[in-house]
Structures are given as structure tokens and as C-alpha cells.
């Protein structure tokens, strides 16, 4: 799967379960670890878990490589590493505390997908 296609699939899968404030960031020039970082919010620990579980299930169904899932026990912040796309799904208070988008944006934020 192409990187942009993978990113679009991730964004659609997050939308399926109503992830809030989804921000895709193009970080390929900043870090060799990934090309895109996606940050999303769930409104409770159950919602965060449901969003992450849905994303993982759909990626496995597409035979997409899944490198790691971290934080799925506490569900305050779940990281899903798909290689070219790393997804951070957080509860709002956790997102407010860490401000990941401020670390990487605005110079890397994406206003439109190609």
C-alpha cells in the first residue's frame, strides 16, 4: 500500500468510530522513524480502546504490517505503529498535557492530502 493510501485509510478508520480532532502531520523530513504521524482524541478510555481496536482490526484485514501497539492496557494513550504512519489516540487530558502537535506543527501540519 502506498504511503498516502495508508494515511487515507487510517483517517477513514479513525472517522468510523468518531475520533475527534484528528490531525495528520507530515514528519518525513524531521525523523527517519516514520513519514506521517496522526494524532486523534477519544472521549473516554473505552472510546480510545475502541478506536485503536477498530484501526488494528481493519489494518490486519488489509494485510497491512503492524509493527507495534502500545498503551492498550491503560487506554489513556494508545500508539499504533504502522511503519509509514504512526497513530496516537489519546484522551483529551493526556493530549492537552503532552501537546504532541505543538512539537511537530505548524511547520509539518498537512492542510490537504495529495
From TrEMBL:
It comes from the Bacteria. It holds the Pfam family RsfS. InterPro entries: Iojap/RsfS/C7orf30, NT_sf. One of its GO terms (biological process) is negative regulation of ribosome biogenesis. It is found in: Cytoplasm. One of its GO terms (molecular function) is ribosomal large subunit binding. Interacts with ribosomal protein uL14 (rplN). Belongs to the Iojap/RsfS family. Functions as a ribosomal silencing factor. Interacts with ribosomal protein uL14 (rplN), blocking formation of intersubunit bridge B8. Prevents association of the 30S and 50S ribosomal subunits and the formation of functional ribosomes, thus repressing translation. This is Ribosomal silencing factor RsfS. It comes from Candidatus Berkiella aquae.
Amino acid at each position: 500500500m502506498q504511503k498516502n493510501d495508508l494515511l487515507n485509510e487510517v483517517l477513514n478508520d479513525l472517522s468510523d468510530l468518531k475520533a475527534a480532532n484528528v490531525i495528520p502531520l507530515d514528519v518525513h523530513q524531521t525523523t527517519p522513524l516514520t513519514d506521517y504521524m496522526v494524532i486523534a482524541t477519544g472521549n473516554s478510555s473505552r472510546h480510545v480502546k475502541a478506536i485503536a481496536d477498530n484501526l488494528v482490526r481493519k489494518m490486519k484485514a488489509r494485510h497491512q504490517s503492524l509493527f507495534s501497539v502500545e498503551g492498550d492496557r491503560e487506554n489513556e494513550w494508545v500508539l499504533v505503529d504502522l511503519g509509514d504512519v504512526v497513530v496516537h489516540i489519546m484522551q483529551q487530558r493526556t493530549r492537552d498535557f503532552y501537546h504532541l502537535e505543538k512539537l511537530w506543527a505548524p511547520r509539518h501540519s498537512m492542510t490537504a492530502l495529495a
